[in-house]
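Handout, section B. The chain below has 352 residues.
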Amino acid sequence: MAYKAEYYVHETDKNALKALKAIPGFHQFVKAFMKIWSERQYRVSNMSSCVRMNEKQLSKYYDMLPPICEKLGIDIPELYLQLDVNPNSYTSGDTTPFIVVTSGLFETIPEELIPTVLAHECGHIACHHVLYSTMGNILLGGTASALRNFVPYGSFATMPLEIAFFYWMRCSELSADRAAVLCDGGAEKMSEVCMRLAGFDKDIDALASKDEFMVQAREYRDMIKGSKWDKTLEFLALSNRSHPLMTVRALECEEWSTSEQFNKILDGSYETESSETIEELTEMSLEGEEETEKKPKPKFEFPMFKKKAKDEELEARTGSIPDEIRKYKELLDDGIITEEEFSAKKKQLLGI
């Protein structure tokens, strides 16, 4: 029986995606994206520039996919090998997702860890991340300038979208990591993948300790938790990154693999309290902003900031960014909020 994505998707992944979809301008961006998006263009690029792996080509690696896909309940995606010295793998597409691994990945990690990497990428497919992550990569890449022409206020309005996309993409990696941990039956291999991608190349002629790497991970977490300033520095360092830190990922995997949730999913006895399916969570509406006004919009909030009650009430109001700034200016003039609070809110709305 396949593992249901609803059972293992990370809570921050779900919350970040809901917050992303509530960002003003998101639906206009989706419409613009669907106008220029061509899945076939990606297929042409892969077919012309990469090596496609299948039963007759590099079958040793392709044969790793079917048992993984069976466990996660997905169709077998196309698998490509790309010449690139950087160790990397990624999944893209929409109706027909595909996985690309680089030659640098094979040079960095031992062969027995390749199925773990493939399980991680298949986890993205099972969790329906692929279209959103493709959108995010395009928005955060060179094509963003074309999309900004379709969004009110241009690049000014895409700033919150860019920040929200980066944050969700980092959170989505944690869900994909869990898929790999489930396929492996434990976190040991995923933790080693993190350690090797952090710096321990397989050609380094020395012994490395995964246990010591996990000690390092815990020390880092304790350091960040113990200082608000360090937490702020971490956030600033991660604000334009699509992946979380390797030690953070390794520790998340290890701790989740010892949880009751993991053990129950593994033995088939887990039942989630939420009735929301992964399809409902990731559903993409093209109807426009007005459709979402029927439901209260979750606010996009970075983990380090705790908003005051009056800010929560004020942020519930929707409208353009200039209108929001005017509303807060009126509150400042009436003496309801301070100059410092107004300045902080203005910077937040402007994404600076």
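Note. The longest strand covers residues 78-82. Compare this with the example in section A.
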